[in-house]
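Morning run. Coffee first, then this:
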Amino acid sequence: MNRITRVPSRWNGRAEQLPQPAGAEPGAGAPSTGRRRKPRAPVGSIIAALLALSLTACASPDRGGASAPPAGTAAASAPPAGTAAAEEASSGRLQWRGGPTAILERDGLRLLTDPVLGPRGPAAFVLPKHPSTGVENAPVARYTDPPAEPLGHLDVILLSHNHADHFDAVAKETLPKDVTFVLPPDAVEAARAAGFTKLTPLDWDNEAVLPTRAGRLRILAVPANHSHDAALDATLGKGNGYVLRWEGAAPYSVYWTGDSVFTEPMRAVAARFAPIDLWLPHLGAVGVDGARGLRTMDAEEAVAAAALLRARHVIPIHHTTFAHYREPVTAFTQRAATKSLPAHVHVPTDGAWMPLPR
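And here it is:
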């Protein structure tokens, strides 16, 4: 049976240097278009073997052996052992698939975030109460279809929380049930009811460890507060953000916020882990025009958080795709430019692959 290790975080209290289309509702923004790249060959056979290993928190990374010389180069000038592994580990990529859904590939692992896979239409999902209008059992429109490119092999599904706009009916029906599924404890019941069998619930400040080709990946669950209103935050349920740390030949860190506003717990994440190589914030200012305020960050909060995190690169997601997003991504890019945010901001094209920036 494939297993991953769950351990309490060893970084408590320590700072770490780690590596719209026409007819859309106001504020939804217009999706951009771009040429899609051909997907790489799946790496499932290699990762399946690696995931079969049971790791401990102190497991030593495999730094690889000798590699073949580049084409046209004499064998005598082959690079030192481990060089090829380091280059491969650092050549990750990302595909944004609309809303909160993205694929991250790095060092032999392929991760899917918050799967929302249903088609374009006026009722992609139903929210118990609309964050802007307060209407109960409110259908929410999807403005763009998911990419036509299949999801392909998946090693891990990462879930921030069990709301219909982050884990929809199509995802529950169609995703492979035997994929490793990292999720908040509050979401376990729904995932198990949908047939998923390899569940790894992580409460805040707990982590899972996965082997990679050149080392290991640490997945740390961190707080994701859905609202500044404490009572509403409790009602909406306890969700996760995740700090992902690739260790080994080519260290790299990613902070995916999940549905979080900018709160003291996010400041604490910055104090522990800044600078972050790549920040993936949920934008859209959901609820900004509602009676109880923000459910995800607006541009002002996101720029402040990025500065505190000392993020080297930012790829904003959770915008444009759905009708309950109230602020276009340009609000963030414009404010980042006005405030001279030092991070490099990369606005993804829906469905296109892009390299993980260094």
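The first helix runs from residue 44 to 51. Good start to the day.
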